[in-house]
Specification:
With 171 residues, this protein is mainly alpha-helical. The chain has 7 helices and 2 strands.
Amino acid sequence: KEKTLDSKKQKMEHKEKTEKKKSKIEQYTGKLRTLEDTKKNIDAINKLYKLNSENKQKKNDNLLKILASIEVLGTAYENLRPNTGILTQGTDIQDSPDDLTIKKLEKIIKNLKEGKFQWSPIKRVMIPKPGKKTLRPLGIPNFTDKLVQEGLRMILNSIYEPIFQEYEVNF
């Protein structure tokens, strides 16, 4: 019961800190929007999507420039923020979504642009397999890594979604 109470308390504290932080992040991401509205307003990613829709053989370049922007990483944060899984800490206890500031975002961007960004080691935990008594490994990255991964996911989706869209099957 103590773990459940601690978890609920941690989630509530995270929610409160996130609400306070909204005004800081809004400087760069504009008024906080729904996920769909946010995706529509990322010009660079929209342009990538459009170009890859028109030419499925297109060679994409300058992807690092797109990733290393306040707009993309700010939107990545907005995509991650509702997920309570971002509270699970990786190997660095100092790296938390509650500690994200504009200054920290700018530092991440600087490291990406200069080629100095380093992925952190993954925290490995064993979790039970559903319906079985055996365990399976699960890797938990630090928050900064989650943020950059989400930015990369957004970019890669805009490249590959148009290519595979014609093969999509609805069930």
